[in-house]
Amino acid sequence: MSSDELIFFFSPSAIRRTSLCSSLWIHLMSPVASKAKKDQEGGEEKKTTQKKKVKELKVLDSKTSQNLSIFLGSFRMPYEEIKTVILEVNESVLTESMVQNLIKQMPEPEQLKMLAELKDEYNDMAESEQFGVVISSVSRLRPRLNAILFKLQFNEQVENIKPEIVSVTAACEEVRKSENFSGLLEFILLVGNFMNAGSRNAGAFGFNISFLCKLRDTKSSDQKLTLLHFVAEQCEQSYPKLLTFPDELIHVEKASRVSAENLQKNLDMMRKQISDVERDIENFPAVTDEKDKFVEKMTSFIKDAKEQYDKLRMMHSNMENLFKELGQYFLFDPKKTSIEDFFMDLNNFRNMFLQAVKENQKRRETEEKMRRAKLAKEKAEKERLEKQQKREQLIDMNAEGDETGVMDSLLEALQSGAAFRRKRGPRQAKRKTGCAVTSLLASELMKDDALSSVPSKMLKNSEKTTDGEVHEETMEMNSRSS
Question: What are phi and psi of 60, to 5 degrees?
Fold first, then answer.
Protein backbone atom coordinates (compact mmCIF):
# COMPACT_ATOMS: atom_id res chain seq x y z
CA MET A 1 0.00 0.00 0.00
CA SER A 2 1.35 3.36 -1.02
CA SER A 3 1.74 6.31 1.31
CA ASP A 4 -0.96 8.23 -0.57
CA GLU A 5 -3.45 5.48 0.05
CA LEU A 6 -2.48 5.23 3.71
CA ILE A 7 -3.29 8.87 4.36
CA PHE A 8 -6.99 8.33 3.76
CA PHE A 9 -7.22 6.06 6.79
CA PHE A 10 -6.44 8.95 9.27
CA SER A 11 -8.68 11.67 10.61
CA PRO A 12 -8.15 15.32 9.55
CA SER A 13 -6.28 16.07 12.84
CA ALA A 14 -4.02 13.10 12.31
CA ILE A 15 -3.35 14.28 8.78
CA ARG A 16 -2.25 17.69 10.12
CA ARG A 17 0.08 16.08 12.70
CA THR A 18 1.57 13.84 10.02
CA SER A 19 2.26 16.82 7.73
CA LEU A 20 3.95 18.75 10.59
CA CYS A 21 6.22 15.86 11.45
CA SER A 22 7.11 15.42 7.82
CA SER A 23 8.03 19.10 7.51
CA LEU A 24 10.18 18.95 10.67
CA TRP A 25 11.91 15.81 9.42
CA ILE A 26 12.60 17.41 6.05
CA HIS A 27 14.07 20.51 7.81
CA LEU A 28 16.35 18.44 10.01
CA MET A 29 17.56 16.36 7.14
CA SER A 30 18.31 19.37 4.96
CA PRO A 31 22.03 20.15 4.24
CA VAL A 32 21.83 23.63 5.90
CA ALA A 33 20.47 22.29 9.21
CA SER A 34 23.01 19.52 9.32
CA LYS A 35 25.83 22.00 8.85
CA ALA A 36 24.51 24.33 11.60
CA LYS A 37 24.24 21.42 13.99
CA LYS A 38 27.80 20.33 13.24
CA ASP A 39 29.09 23.89 13.68
CA GLN A 40 27.33 24.16 17.05
CA GLU A 41 28.73 20.86 18.22
CA GLY A 42 32.14 21.81 16.94
CA GLY A 43 31.96 25.20 18.68
CA GLU A 44 31.07 23.58 21.98
CA GLU A 45 33.92 21.14 21.66
CA LYS A 46 36.28 23.97 20.76
CA LYS A 47 35.06 26.06 23.70
CA THR A 48 35.50 23.15 26.07
CA THR A 49 38.96 22.49 24.69
CA GLN A 50 39.87 26.16 25.02
CA LYS A 51 38.55 26.25 28.56
CA LYS A 52 40.57 23.25 29.49
CA LYS A 53 43.59 24.73 27.83
CA VAL A 54 43.28 28.07 29.79
CA LYS A 55 43.16 26.25 33.11
CA GLU A 56 46.51 24.63 32.46
CA LEU A 57 49.16 26.34 34.60
CA LYS A 58 52.73 26.61 33.40
CA VAL A 59 54.53 28.23 36.34
CA LEU A 60 52.23 28.99 39.29
CA ASP A 61 50.74 26.36 41.56
CA SER A 62 46.98 26.01 41.81
CA LYS A 63 46.63 27.67 45.24
CA THR A 64 48.68 30.74 44.30
CA SER A 65 46.83 31.04 41.02
CA GLN A 66 43.44 30.78 42.71
CA ASN A 67 44.22 33.40 45.36
CA LEU A 68 45.62 35.78 42.78
CA SER A 69 42.58 35.32 40.52
CA ILE A 70 40.20 36.05 43.41
CA PHE A 71 42.16 39.20 44.26
CA LEU A 72 42.21 40.43 40.68
CA GLY A 73 38.50 39.71 40.30
CA SER A 74 37.69 42.07 43.16
CA PHE A 75 39.15 45.07 41.27
CA ARG A 76 37.99 44.34 37.72
CA MET A 77 40.75 46.44 36.23
CA PRO A 78 42.76 45.60 33.11
CA TYR A 79 46.23 44.30 33.93
CA GLU A 80 47.92 47.08 32.01
CA GLU A 81 45.96 49.67 34.00
CA ILE A 82 47.08 48.11 37.29
CA LYS A 83 50.65 48.26 36.04
CA THR A 84 50.29 51.95 35.11
CA VAL A 85 48.79 52.80 38.51
CA ILE A 86 51.82 51.23 40.23
CA LEU A 87 54.31 53.01 37.98
CA GLU A 88 52.66 56.39 38.49
CA VAL A 89 52.21 55.85 42.26
CA ASN A 90 48.63 56.97 41.77
CA GLU A 91 47.31 57.35 45.33
CA SER A 92 43.80 58.17 44.10
CA VAL A 93 43.51 54.52 42.99
CA LEU A 94 46.04 52.77 45.17
CA THR A 95 44.84 52.06 48.67
CA GLU A 96 46.55 50.56 51.67
CA SER A 97 44.56 47.33 51.48
CA MET A 98 45.11 47.01 47.73
CA VAL A 99 48.89 47.34 48.02
CA GLN A 100 48.98 44.97 51.01
CA ASN A 101 47.10 42.31 49.00
CA LEU A 102 49.34 42.87 46.00
CA ILE A 103 52.40 42.23 48.15
CA LYS A 104 50.76 39.20 49.73
CA GLN A 105 49.45 37.59 46.53
CA MET A 106 52.30 38.58 44.21
CA PRO A 107 54.29 35.61 42.77
CA GLU A 108 57.90 35.27 43.82
CA PRO A 109 60.60 37.07 41.75
CA GLU A 110 61.79 33.74 40.27
CA GLN A 111 58.26 32.91 39.15
CA LEU A 112 57.79 36.36 37.63
CA LYS A 113 61.04 35.92 35.74
CA MET A 114 59.86 32.57 34.32
CA LEU A 115 56.51 34.07 33.36
CA ALA A 116 58.24 36.96 31.57
CA GLU A 117 60.02 34.43 29.36
CA LEU A 118 56.65 32.95 28.33
CA LYS A 119 55.13 36.19 27.11
CA ASP A 120 54.85 34.79 23.58
CA GLU A 121 52.34 32.24 24.93
CA TYR A 122 50.26 34.90 26.61
CA ASN A 123 46.94 33.89 24.97
CA ASP A 124 47.31 30.28 26.05
CA MET A 125 48.01 31.09 29.72
CA ALA A 126 45.71 31.29 32.73
CA GLU A 127 44.50 34.71 33.84
CA SER A 128 46.67 34.75 36.95
CA GLU A 129 49.76 33.95 34.86
CA GLN A 130 48.77 36.55 32.28
CA PHE A 131 48.81 39.14 35.08
CA GLY A 132 52.22 37.86 36.11
CA VAL A 133 53.52 38.36 32.57
CA VAL A 134 52.25 41.99 32.53
CA ILE A 135 53.46 42.94 36.01
CA SER A 136 56.87 41.28 35.58
CA SER A 137 57.95 44.15 33.36
CA VAL A 138 57.92 46.54 36.39
CA SER A 139 61.46 46.83 37.72
CA ARG A 140 62.11 46.20 41.42
CA LEU A 141 58.46 45.41 41.92
CA ARG A 142 58.43 44.21 45.55
CA PRO A 143 60.67 47.00 46.98
CA ARG A 144 58.58 49.46 45.00
CA LEU A 145 55.34 48.14 46.53
CA ASN A 146 56.85 48.18 50.04
CA ALA A 147 57.89 51.81 49.60
CA ILE A 148 54.43 52.77 48.29
CA LEU A 149 52.80 51.02 51.25
CA PHE A 150 55.05 52.91 53.68
CA LYS A 151 54.08 56.18 52.00
CA LEU A 152 50.38 55.34 52.34
CA GLN A 153 50.77 54.36 56.02
CA PHE A 154 53.15 57.12 57.10
CA ASN A 155 50.58 59.71 58.22
CA GLU A 156 48.74 57.07 60.23
CA GLN A 157 51.98 56.05 61.94
CA VAL A 158 52.68 59.68 62.86
CA GLU A 159 49.14 60.07 64.25
CA ASN A 160 49.66 56.97 66.39
CA ILE A 161 53.06 57.95 67.78
CA LYS A 162 52.70 61.70 68.29
CA PRO A 163 49.67 61.69 70.67
CA GLU A 164 51.37 59.13 72.92
CA ILE A 165 54.49 61.30 73.26
CA VAL A 166 52.36 64.38 73.91
CA SER A 167 50.27 62.60 76.57
CA VAL A 168 53.27 61.34 78.54
CA THR A 169 55.03 64.71 78.28
CA ALA A 170 51.96 66.59 79.53
CA ALA A 171 51.38 64.07 82.33
CA CYS A 172 54.97 64.44 83.56
CA GLU A 173 54.61 68.22 83.69
CA GLU A 174 51.21 68.04 85.42
CA VAL A 175 52.42 65.69 88.17
CA ARG A 176 55.56 67.74 88.74
CA LYS A 177 53.75 71.10 88.92
CA SER A 178 50.55 70.16 90.77
CA GLU A 179 50.61 71.89 94.16
CA ASN A 180 47.42 70.22 95.36
CA PHE A 181 48.78 66.76 94.59
CA SER A 182 51.97 67.60 96.50
CA GLY A 183 49.87 68.84 99.41
CA LEU A 184 47.85 65.63 99.42
CA LEU A 185 51.05 63.58 99.53
CA GLU A 186 52.23 65.60 102.53
CA PHE A 187 48.94 64.99 104.34
CA ILE A 188 49.09 61.25 103.60
CA LEU A 189 52.67 61.15 104.93
CA LEU A 190 51.49 62.93 108.10
CA VAL A 191 48.66 60.42 108.60
CA GLY A 192 51.05 57.50 108.01
CA ASN A 193 53.57 58.79 110.54
CA PHE A 194 50.79 59.31 113.09
CA MET A 195 49.56 55.75 112.63
CA ASN A 196 53.10 54.32 112.77
CA ALA A 197 54.09 56.30 115.86
CA GLY A 198 56.23 54.15 118.13
CA SER A 199 57.06 51.61 115.40
CA ARG A 200 60.18 51.24 113.28
CA ASN A 201 58.38 53.00 110.39
CA ALA A 202 57.73 56.17 112.41
CA GLY A 203 59.15 59.48 111.26
CA ALA A 204 59.34 58.59 107.57
CA PHE A 205 60.44 61.32 105.14
CA GLY A 206 58.55 59.87 102.18
CA PHE A 207 56.95 56.77 100.66
CA ASN A 208 56.85 54.91 97.38
CA ILE A 209 54.27 56.25 94.94
CA SER A 210 52.81 52.74 94.56
CA PHE A 211 51.76 52.92 98.25
CA LEU A 212 48.91 55.27 97.29
CA CYS A 213 46.84 52.40 95.92
CA LYS A 214 47.28 50.48 99.20
CA LEU A 215 45.40 53.10 101.25
CA ARG A 216 42.24 51.21 100.44
CA ASP A 217 43.61 48.01 102.01
CA THR A 218 43.66 49.47 105.56
CA LYS A 219 40.09 49.19 106.89
CA SER A 220 38.18 50.13 110.01
CA SER A 221 37.10 47.59 112.64
CA ASP A 222 33.64 47.24 111.08
CA GLN A 223 35.20 46.84 107.59
CA LYS A 224 32.97 49.63 106.22
CA LEU A 225 35.52 52.44 105.90
CA THR A 226 39.10 52.49 104.62
CA LEU A 227 42.05 54.73 105.27
CA LEU A 228 41.38 56.32 101.88
CA HIS A 229 37.85 57.26 103.02
CA PHE A 230 39.33 58.84 106.13
CA VAL A 231 41.89 60.84 104.12
CA ALA A 232 39.22 62.04 101.67
CA GLU A 233 36.89 63.06 104.50
CA GLN A 234 39.60 64.94 106.38
CA CYS A 235 40.51 66.77 103.17
CA GLU A 236 36.86 67.75 102.71
CA GLN A 237 36.62 69.11 106.24
CA SER A 238 40.02 70.76 106.68
CA TYR A 239 41.73 71.03 103.25
CA PRO A 240 39.00 71.25 100.58
CA LYS A 241 41.42 72.68 98.04
CA LEU A 242 43.27 69.35 97.89
CA LEU A 243 40.15 67.71 96.47
CA THR A 244 40.77 69.46 93.14
CA PHE A 245 44.01 67.62 92.40
CA PRO A 246 42.32 65.18 89.92
CA ASP A 247 41.50 68.19 87.70
CA GLU A 248 45.22 68.99 87.51
CA LEU A 249 46.14 65.47 86.28
CA ILE A 250 43.94 65.19 83.19
CA HIS A 251 46.59 63.51 80.97
CA VAL A 252 47.49 60.81 83.48
CA GLU A 253 44.83 58.43 82.15
CA LYS A 254 46.12 58.60 78.56
CA ALA A 255 49.73 58.30 79.73
CA SER A 256 48.83 55.12 81.65
CA ARG A 257 47.98 53.42 78.34
CA VAL A 258 51.30 54.25 76.69
CA SER A 259 53.90 51.51 76.42
CA ALA A 260 57.37 53.04 76.28
CA GLU A 261 58.71 49.84 74.73
CA ASN A 262 56.20 49.83 71.87
CA LEU A 263 56.72 53.53 71.35
CA GLN A 264 60.45 53.03 70.93
CA LYS A 265 59.86 50.11 68.55
CA ASN A 266 57.55 52.18 66.36
CA LEU A 267 60.10 54.97 66.13
CA ASP A 268 62.87 52.50 65.27
CA MET A 269 60.70 50.90 62.58
CA MET A 270 59.94 54.30 61.06
CA ARG A 271 63.63 55.16 60.95
CA LYS A 272 64.43 51.81 59.26
CA GLN A 273 61.67 52.25 56.67
CA ILE A 274 62.93 55.73 55.80
CA SER A 275 66.46 54.36 55.39
CA ASP A 276 65.20 51.52 53.16
CA VAL A 277 63.34 53.90 50.87
CA GLU A 278 66.38 56.19 50.65
CA ARG A 279 68.54 53.22 49.67
CA ASP A 280 65.98 52.08 47.06
CA ILE A 281 65.93 55.54 45.51
CA GLU A 282 69.72 55.64 45.31
CA ASN A 283 69.97 52.16 43.76
CA PHE A 284 66.97 52.53 41.48
CA PRO A 285 67.78 51.75 37.82
CA ALA A 286 67.42 54.29 35.06
CA VAL A 287 63.84 54.98 34.12
CA THR A 288 62.86 53.38 30.79
CA ASP A 289 59.13 54.09 30.95
CA GLU A 290 57.93 57.66 30.91
CA LYS A 291 55.01 56.66 33.14
CA ASP A 292 57.37 55.62 35.92
CA LYS A 293 57.15 58.38 38.57
CA PHE A 294 58.45 56.34 41.51
CA VAL A 295 61.79 58.13 42.02
CA GLU A 296 60.29 61.56 41.58
CA LYS A 297 57.40 61.12 44.02
CA MET A 298 59.26 59.07 46.61
CA THR A 299 62.15 61.55 46.76
CA SER A 300 59.75 64.35 47.66
CA PHE A 301 57.95 62.14 50.16
CA ILE A 302 61.07 60.91 51.93
CA LYS A 303 62.25 64.47 52.48
CA ASP A 304 59.05 65.36 54.37
CA ALA A 305 59.10 62.03 56.20
CA LYS A 306 62.60 62.65 57.56
CA GLU A 307 61.60 66.08 58.85
CA GLN A 308 58.58 64.68 60.69
CA TYR A 309 60.61 61.80 62.08
CA ASP A 310 63.27 64.21 63.41
CA LYS A 311 60.54 66.18 65.23
CA LEU A 312 59.10 63.02 66.73
CA ARG A 313 62.53 61.89 67.85
CA MET A 314 63.19 65.24 69.58
CA MET A 315 59.78 65.10 71.28
CA HIS A 316 60.49 61.56 72.44
CA SER A 317 63.88 62.56 73.82
CA ASN A 318 62.29 65.44 75.75
CA MET A 319 59.65 63.07 77.12
CA GLU A 320 62.30 60.66 78.41
CA ASN A 321 64.19 63.50 80.13
CA LEU A 322 61.03 64.70 81.88
CA PHE A 323 60.30 61.19 83.13
CA LYS A 324 63.84 60.88 84.47
CA GLU A 325 63.41 64.17 86.36
CA LEU A 326 60.14 62.84 87.73
CA GLY A 327 62.03 59.78 88.98
CA GLN A 328 64.49 62.00 90.80
CA TYR A 329 61.67 64.04 92.36
CA PHE A 330 59.67 61.01 93.58
CA LEU A 331 62.77 58.89 94.24
CA PHE A 332 62.18 55.95 91.91
CA ASP A 333 64.38 54.34 89.26
CA PRO A 334 63.01 55.06 85.74
CA LYS A 335 64.80 51.94 84.46
CA LYS A 336 62.91 49.70 86.90
CA THR A 337 59.62 51.60 86.95
CA SER A 338 58.24 51.99 83.45
CA ILE A 339 56.15 54.90 82.23
CA GLU A 340 53.15 52.63 81.95
CA ASP A 341 53.45 51.32 85.54
CA PHE A 342 54.05 54.73 87.11
CA PHE A 343 51.09 56.45 85.49
CA MET A 344 48.91 53.38 85.93
CA ASP A 345 49.38 53.65 89.71
CA LEU A 346 48.63 57.38 89.64
CA ASN A 347 45.53 56.90 87.50
CA ASN A 348 44.22 54.12 89.74
CA PHE A 349 44.74 56.27 92.84
CA ARG A 350 43.05 59.23 91.15
CA ASN A 351 39.98 57.12 90.33
CA MET A 352 39.89 55.52 93.80
CA PHE A 353 40.12 58.90 95.50
CA LEU A 354 37.22 60.29 93.46
CA GLN A 355 35.21 57.16 94.27
CA ALA A 356 35.97 57.54 97.99
CA VAL A 357 34.74 61.14 97.94
CA LYS A 358 31.47 60.04 96.31
CA GLU A 359 31.04 57.21 98.80
CA ASN A 360 31.61 59.59 101.71
CA GLN A 361 28.96 61.96 100.38
CA LYS A 362 26.52 59.11 99.87
CA ARG A 363 27.21 57.78 103.39
CA ARG A 364 26.61 61.22 104.92
CA GLU A 365 23.38 61.61 102.98
CA THR A 366 22.23 58.21 104.19
CA GLU A 367 23.09 59.05 107.79
CA GLU A 368 21.28 62.39 107.52
CA LYS A 369 18.17 60.67 106.18
CA MET A 370 18.28 58.16 109.01
CA ARG A 371 18.71 60.96 111.58
CA ARG A 372 15.77 62.90 110.18
CA ALA A 373 13.66 59.77 110.08
CA LYS A 374 14.53 59.06 113.73
CA LEU A 375 13.68 62.61 114.81
CA ALA A 376 10.41 62.50 112.91
CA LYS A 377 9.55 59.19 114.53
CA GLU A 378 10.37 60.49 118.01
CA LYS A 379 8.32 63.64 117.42
CA ALA A 380 5.36 61.65 116.18
CA GLU A 381 5.59 59.32 119.18
CA LYS A 382 5.74 62.27 121.58
CA GLU A 383 2.71 63.90 119.98
CA ARG A 384 0.85 60.61 120.11
CA LEU A 385 1.59 60.21 123.83
CA GLU A 386 0.50 63.78 124.56
CA LYS A 387 -2.76 63.30 122.72
CA GLN A 388 -3.35 60.01 124.46
CA GLN A 389 -2.65 61.61 127.86
CA LYS A 390 -5.08 64.43 127.20
CA ARG A 391 -7.68 61.99 125.99
CA GLU A 392 -7.31 59.90 129.13
CA GLN A 393 -7.61 62.98 131.34
CA LEU A 394 -10.88 63.95 129.65
CA ILE A 395 -12.22 60.42 129.95
CA ASP A 396 -11.38 60.15 133.66
CA MET A 397 -12.91 63.50 134.63
CA ASN A 398 -15.74 61.81 136.63
CA ALA A 399 -13.39 59.34 138.31
CA GLU A 400 -12.60 59.49 141.99
CA GLY A 401 -9.93 61.99 142.86
CA ASP A 402 -9.26 65.64 143.21
CA GLU A 403 -12.14 67.73 141.87
CA THR A 404 -9.82 70.64 141.26
CA GLY A 405 -7.85 68.58 138.69
CA VAL A 406 -11.05 67.61 136.94
CA MET A 407 -12.17 71.20 136.77
CA ASP A 408 -8.80 72.30 135.44
CA SER A 409 -8.95 69.65 132.71
CA LEU A 410 -12.46 70.74 131.81
CA LEU A 411 -11.47 74.39 131.63
CA GLU A 412 -8.45 73.53 129.47
CA ALA A 413 -10.66 71.54 127.07
CA LEU A 414 -13.12 74.43 126.87
CA GLN A 415 -10.43 77.02 126.27
CA SER A 416 -8.66 74.95 123.54
CA GLY A 417 -11.94 74.14 121.86
CA ALA A 418 -11.32 70.39 122.04
CA ALA A 419 -14.64 69.86 123.79
CA PHE A 420 -16.55 71.45 120.88
CA ARG A 421 -14.71 69.58 118.12
CA ARG A 422 -15.55 66.14 119.36
CA LYS A 423 -18.69 64.34 118.34
CA ARG A 424 -21.00 63.53 121.18
CA GLY A 425 -21.01 59.78 121.52
CA PRO A 426 -22.37 57.55 124.24
CA ARG A 427 -19.28 58.05 126.42
CA GLN A 428 -19.42 61.83 126.01
CA ALA A 429 -23.08 61.79 126.97
CA LYS A 430 -22.21 59.99 130.17
CA ARG A 431 -19.37 62.45 130.73
CA LYS A 432 -21.87 65.34 130.31
CA THR A 433 -24.17 63.85 132.89
CA GLY A 434 -21.29 63.35 135.30
CA CYS A 435 -20.20 66.96 134.88
CA ALA A 436 -23.76 68.13 135.52
CA VAL A 437 -24.02 66.03 138.66
CA THR A 438 -20.70 67.35 139.90
CA SER A 439 -21.78 70.91 139.24
CA LEU A 440 -25.07 70.27 140.96
CA LEU A 441 -23.34 68.95 144.07
CA ALA A 442 -21.07 71.97 144.13
CA SER A 443 -24.00 74.33 143.92
CA GLU A 444 -25.83 72.49 146.65
CA LEU A 445 -22.83 72.82 148.93
CA MET A 446 -22.70 76.51 148.28
CA LYS A 447 -26.40 76.86 148.95
CA ASP A 448 -26.13 75.16 152.33
CA ASP A 449 -24.10 78.06 153.61
CA ALA A 450 -26.75 80.56 152.54
CA LEU A 451 -29.94 78.72 153.63
CA SER A 452 -30.63 81.12 156.39
CA SER A 453 -30.62 84.08 154.08
CA VAL A 454 -32.55 82.58 151.19
CA PRO A 455 -36.40 82.58 151.32
CA SER A 456 -38.16 79.27 151.21
CA LYS A 457 -40.05 80.30 148.13
CA MET A 458 -36.78 80.69 146.23
CA LEU A 459 -35.64 77.27 147.48
CA LYS A 460 -38.85 75.74 146.13
CA ASN A 461 -38.34 77.50 142.83
CA SER A 462 -34.78 76.30 142.68
CA GLU A 463 -35.92 72.71 143.29
CA LYS A 464 -38.32 73.02 140.39
CA THR A 465 -35.58 74.10 137.95
CA THR A 466 -34.87 71.79 135.11
CA ASP A 467 -31.55 70.05 134.48
CA GLY A 468 -30.82 72.54 131.75
CA GLU A 469 -31.25 75.48 134.08
CA VAL A 470 -29.04 73.87 136.70
CA HIS A 471 -26.36 73.32 134.12
CA GLU A 472 -26.69 76.91 132.96
CA GLU A 473 -26.41 78.23 136.48
CA THR A 474 -23.42 76.04 137.11
CA MET A 475 -21.65 77.38 134.00
CA GLU A 476 -22.39 80.94 135.17
CA MET A 477 -20.87 80.20 138.56
CA ASN A 478 -17.80 78.68 137.00
CA SER A 479 -17.30 81.74 134.87
CA ARG A 480 -17.60 83.98 137.91
CA SER A 481 -15.14 81.91 139.87
CA SER A 482 -12.64 82.07 137.01
Answer: -75, 150
